[in-house]
Amino acid sequence: MDVHTMARLAAGLAIGLGGIGPGIGIGLATMGAVQGISRNPDAEGPIRTTLILGAGLAEAVAIYAFVVALVLLFVAG
pLDDT at position 30, please? Predict the structure, then answer.
């Protein structure tokens, strides 16, 4: 395999595997937030605020994986 093929394969793996963790994390966080709001509707505001902050931080990991994939494509490829 040449360098270009390896760079494309590595970029695909970086974005593919880098998106799995945040996807699962945001899904679990949303599940917990919905359960918390359904049990205590008065706490919707603080729960929603915490959920949005946590989802943003988890999504940052996927953005880092995307940046790594772009670097692999355009620098090594």
Answer: 93
